[in-house]
Design a protein that fits this description.
The longest helix has 26 residues. A hairpin with a 3-residue loop joins strand 1 and strand 2. The protein is about 45% helix and about 5% strand.
């Protein structure tokens, strides 16, 4: 603290910075003790009365120096000065309820004292010394909407443009749209892919070579089990139904369905191409195939396609009587897809379900090889293609930067990248794990009411029994 003549005492602001000339001029006066406490929240109050103890509880007197009152709160900045009373006309700024920095100034000895006005010599310092909050007179003037003022501190009304639905969805990343039309398009794409696969098999059946099976290191060293194909298809149906239940119980089921259907459609188109370009002989010599015709007509191909579709591509129902669909394995593709769906979209803590799905898929592939329904190369290719396309798709879906073309993204060279971008353009990041019943809203409300009544009735009956 630095002492000055004529009982002038000045304590700088204790925040580690040098006070400005405006702050120093506002804190120097004479002949009375005033404690000015500036709040950090920039809020001020008018203190009326001289003996309000609740406003002085935060102050402690420094008896040894007798320089006034100092705040003990860590949330305030203290400036203790020695000032004197004066007379004369006060400036509007000094009459305001607020000081330059939103402070309230009280004197524990004489709260009714006045303050000598400051002499503002320059116009440039007017804006700096103006109060941050409008005075009572300014508040009365602003109520008149017809009056206009050049004061830069007057309130200004800003008209904000309305927010569109797209902008609202952008600022609400948790809100994921269902977009049923896109899901319908993906279902149609899956249907065309499955149709392409059946058509390819109908044409490939005529080109299957009538020779012995190709050498296979796995098939040549295991014993053939004819019942293995049926067991494999039963496991395939269990895996598919389990994955379907998980998807239907998910809150964002429409998004997941269109992802699965799009990927299955792409895989079916790949499979239709690979089985048509390279035709392998039968892996199981005991498997009975439909006799070939030398003069096959378009009507015959149509009947074959309808027969395969009616059986769902499975041999268990006796409708899969055409050979040649080896590269790559459709059974392995479906088993792998079922496991990936359950692993990705079921709750993380359902570890038992994840392992059960993995074992079902693995056993399905093993029984498929035991029955010699496919070559080993068919199984390996099916797993590799299915798992990689699944992981690539979800990597793209979970990263916003990969949804835009550029030198940073080489995955945009894939043929289905534009379709992916169309389906995932309104989805930001991974889908949260939320689940609900796939029922209409009014049915859900009805079920809630029924459960509440049952719960209330059980609680009442329990209380009656206890009494």
């Amino acid at each position: 603290m630095m002492s000055r003549p004529n009982r002038m005492v000045y304590t700088p602001i204790t925040r580690g910075h040098k006070p400005t000339p405006s702050q120093e001029s506002n804190t120097l006066s004479t002949m009375s003790e005033v404690s000015c406490t500036t709040t950090l929240s920039m809020e001020s109050e008018v203190i009326e009365g001289c003996k309000e103890e609740d406003r002085l509880e935060d102050f402690s007197e420094e008896e040894e120096k007798g320089i006034g009152w100092r705040s003990g709160s860590e949330e305030t900045v203290d400036t203790v000065v020695m000032v004197g009373a004066g007379t004369g006309e006060l400036d509007k700024r000094m009459k305001s309820r607020n000081s330059d920095y939103g402070s309230y100034c009280n004197s524990p000895t004489d709260l009714a004292g006045t303050v000598v006005p400051q002499d503002i010599s320059t116009d440039g310092d007017t804006l700096q010394n103006s109060p941050l909050l409008p005075t009572s007179e300014e508040e009365d003037n602003t109520s008149d909407s017809a009056k206009k003022s050049d004061n830069p501190l007057d309130t200004v009304k800003l008209e904000m443009p309305p927010v569109t639905q797209e902008q609202e969805a952008r600022y609400q990343p948790d809100k994921i749209p269902g977009e049923p039309l896109k899901t319908l398009l993906s279902a149609l794409f899956l249907g065309t892919g499955f149709l392409a696969t059946t058509a390819s098999l109908a044409f490939t059946h005529e080109r299957v070579p009538d020779i012995k099976p190709l050498p296979d290191i796995v098939l040549d060293n295991i014993k053939h089990q004819s019942w293995g194909l049926d067991v494999s298809e039963y496991l395939l149906m269990i895996s598919t139904i389990s994955a379907l239940i998980v998807v239907l119980l998910h809150s964002h089921r429409l998004v997941i369905l269109r992802r699965i259907w799009l990927l299955l459609g792409i895989l079916y188109y790949y499979r239709a191409l690979t089985m048509f370009v390279t035709v392998l002989p039968k892996a199981d010599e005991t498997y009975t195939c439909m006799p070939r015709k030398n003069d096959t007509t378009a009507l015959d191909y149509t009947k074959r396609v309808l027969t395969i579709i009616s059986g769902g591509g499975l041999s268990i129902n006796g409708k899969h009587i055409y050979c040649g669909d080896y590269i790559f394995s459709g059974h392995t593709m479906t088993l792998t897809m079922g496991y990936l769906v359950i692993k990705q979209y079921s709750p993380r803590r359902f570890i038992l379900l994840h392992w059960a799905s993995f074992l079902i898929s693995l056993c399905g592939v093993i029984f498929l090889l035991l029955s010699r329904g496919h070559y080993t190369i068919d199984v390996l290719l099916a797993y590799y293609v299915t798992s990689r396309i699944w992981w690539i798709y979800h990597t793209l879906a979970h990263n916003q930067q990969l949804k835009y073309r550029g030198e940073h993204n080489f995955l945009d060279n894939m043929c289905w990248w534009h379709v992916f971008r169309f389906f995932e353009t309104k989805i930001q990041g991974p889908i949260p794990h939320r689940y609900s019943l796939p029922l209409p809203k009014f049915i859900k409300r009805l079920l809630r009411c029924i459960f509440r009544r049952l719960r209330h009735g059980s609680s009442v009956s329990r209380e009656t029994f206890q009494t």
